[in-house]
Amino acid sequence: MKKYSLVCLALISFILSNAQQLENSTLWKIEGNNLEKASYLFGTIHITCDATLEDDVKKALDETTQVVLELDMDDPSLQSKMMQGMYMKDGKTLKDFVSEEDYMAIDSLFKNTMGMPVKMLENVKPFFLTAMLYPKLIDCSTPNSFEEALVDVAKEQGEDVNGLETIEEQLKVFDDIPYKAQAEDLARSAKDNMEYDRKVFAKMYRVYSKENITEMLEMMTDKNQVSISKYQSILLENRNKNWVAKIGDFAKEQPTFFGVGAAHLAGKNGVIKLLRKAGYTVTPVTE
What we know:
TraB/PrgY/GumN_fam, single chain, six-stranded mixed β-sheet, alpha/beta, YbaP-like
């Protein structure tokens, strides 16, 4: 009986430790597992009005000697490769995935917000059509990103910028997520003139400002965003698993500052717990 009780306690302890919510922090220190010096992991937000880096982030950048993002943002061929990979395969167009009524709603949205008919872009993957509208969801004339700010610091410090995946690997994500699901999200945005999306973005910024990475991940389960909620394994989990070994390789070469979207950090298949599972000590920087 005593042995049975001990097994039960161990099992409960294991469940609780895995269910425990991670601390509110977007900056984490990576140590152990034969690393000579610490590296850092920072959760970013890809589009914002204010990409000011906090003092603890600047300190981490000073303590590291290279910056590694999801993509090598300093690659001169990045933009041309991205342009080439934006188009749907097999000659598909937006009309193949939405009703005539939804197509007209999307067309109206593009005319009103982008000043062009969607017909000019109808062979572009629907996700990228949606992404073109993102700057319209925030209240500033010149949106920027933390990735840009991190690249600027790397250049100032004369450091290399590298990527955890190639642009081809990232673009493949939006071939693996069905075009129809992407088009459904675009049509939903068009039907209410992006009103729901504005509320989601506003909430996302509030959550990010609190550095609540667990809630950032929970926001990805919003069923109104089909291509995100239904395909998290493609969008987040598979990529996280692929990144962990690469993070280890970069960190063993030299102390590295890693910057990835904040939604990649939390969860049982998030980068933090996967790094811990791989033997690293990962702790929040909360000073």
